[in-house]
Write a structure and sequence with these properties.
The protein is α/β, with parallel strands linked by helices. It folds into two domains: 2-143, Rossmann fold (3-Layer(aba) Sandwich); 145-303, Alpha-Beta Complex (L-2-Hydroxyisocaproate Dehydrogenase, Chain A, domain 2), CATH 3.90.110. 41% of the residues lie in helices and 22% in strands. The strands form four sheets. The protein has a six-stranded parallel sheet with strand order 3-2-1-4-5-6, with helices on both faces. Helix 6 packs across helix 9 (227-241). The two termini are 33 Å apart. Bound molecules: nicotinamide-adenine-dinucleotide (NAD) and (2S)-2-hydroxybutanedioic acid (LMR). Nicotinamide-adenine-dinucleotide binds at residues 6-12, 31-34, 37, 77-82, 91, 95, 98, 102, 118-120, 122, 143-144, 147, 175, 223-226, 229. It catalyses: (S)-malate + NAD(+) = oxaloacetate + NADH + H(+). Catalyzes the reversible oxidation of malate to oxaloacetate. Substrate binds at residues 82, 88, 120, 151. Keywords: NAD, Oxidoreductase, Tricarboxylic acid cycle.
Length: 308
């Protein structure tokens, strides 16, 4: 299994590190436009191999796509992150051009690859890859829901004063401060609904904290987060590489599912060797469906800014 990660910055390097530590890929190629940067990150990471006990070979290249040839999975993290006070949508002006060029160069060298889009605004960047390449829709996947769900579980565990391993929950919808739809009614602690343990008001607070999870970290860090994003991507790559058929909320092109079409937005999917093996339709309450439709409107508004 060969994986390429474009962008050797905070998220790209974290992603390469987690993939290597999980030890399922034979090779990870890190590519960046900044001269020598990916080479340096790759060398530093390789010097952790004997300490962390992995055999994955990580190489770094400066904009040389020939080295990415025949990648099974390509992850796009290239682009600018937001600063405190900004929204993800404000990044579209710079990131759309980067994602368009990068995805076309990747596909030229790996026509059978599966692409995972991370750069923000992620749902719109995923849609852009659909619109500007000829990859089949099962092979273009946006990462947002896996991360947002991890943050949701963290917040639920905090509220319930429970270990995170006891908690299950999922966030669907757009990967934006207002667009996320944390499925509070479906969340459980060891199969018991979380509403049995905390008040409605506390659960509402968990929901709000989850939705602004990225903004909260951006305010603390001065730039956006990287550990959980890298870990989330690595879990998705592993599910594909190892054909795990695991369920993750991912941003995928919808054609009528959840009553939505012609946009990419987070819904539960099964990930395996073919990328998106299946979109999982679940019954939403009226309030959740309404929130999902509002979220879709927001994503479509951002999509309309694309020059395609
Ligand atoms: N979807 C998510 O859940 C999620 C999570 C975290 C971050 N992000 C997004 O991921 C992106 C990267 O964030 P980061 O913190 O790693 O930023 P960063 O600035 O640390 O790294 C970005 C890297 O991309 C490189 N780059 C820029 N243009 C390039 C090009 N044309 N080709 C190759 N490399 C190029 C830069 O040189 C830089 O090293 C941002 O857009 C951020 O908003 C998304
Ligand atoms: O918050 C951001 O801008 C980065 C990313 O989308 C995140 O959720 O951490």
């Amino acid at each position: 299994m060969k994986v390429t990660v474009v962008g050797a910055g905070a998220v790209g390097a974290s992603c390469a590190e987690y993939i290597a530590i999980k030890n399922f890929a034979s090779e990870v190629v890190l590519l960046d436009i900044k001269e020598g940067f990916a080479e340096g990150k790759a060398m530093d990471l390789m010097q952790t191999a004997s300490l962390n006990g992995f055999d994955t070979k990580i190489t770094g290249v400066t904009n040389d796509y020939s080295k990415t040839a025949d990648s099974d999975v390509c992850v796009i993290t290239s682009g600018i992150p937001r600063k405190p006070g900004m929204t993800r949508e404000e990044l579209i002006g710079i990131n759309a051009g980067i994602v368009k060029t990068v995805s076309s160069s990747l596909i030229e060298n790996s026509p059978n690859t599966i692409i995972i889009v991370v750069s923000n605004p992620m749902d719109t960047m995923t849609y852009l890859v659909h619109k500007t390449t000829s990859l089949p829709k099962n092979r273009i996947i946006g990462m947002g829901g896996a991360l947002d769900s991890a943050r949701f579980k963290y917040r639920l565990a905090e509220a319930l004063e429970a270990p995170i391993s006891d908690i299950d929950g999922m966030v669907i919808g757009g990967h934006s401060d207002t667009g996320m739809v944390p499925l509070t009614a479906h969340a459980t602690r060891n199969s018991i609904k979380v509403s049995e343990f905390i008040s409605e008001a506390r659960l509402e607070q968990v929901k709000e904290d989850t939705k602004v999870g990225g903004a909260t970290l951006t305010k603390l860090l001065g730039t956006s987060a990287w550990y959980a994003p890298g870990a989330a991507v690595s879990s998705m790559v592993q599910a594909i590489a190892c054909d795990q058929k695991k369920m993750f909320p991912c941003s995928v092109l919808l054609d009528g599912e959840f009553g939505l079409k012609d946009l990419c937005i987070g819904v539960p999917v099964i990930l395996g060797r073919n990328g998106i093996e299946k979109i999982v339709s679940i019954k939403l309450s009226d309030a959740e469906q309404k929130h999902m439709e509002q979220s879709a409107e927001g994503v479509k508004k951002t999509n309309a800014l694309l020059e395609i």
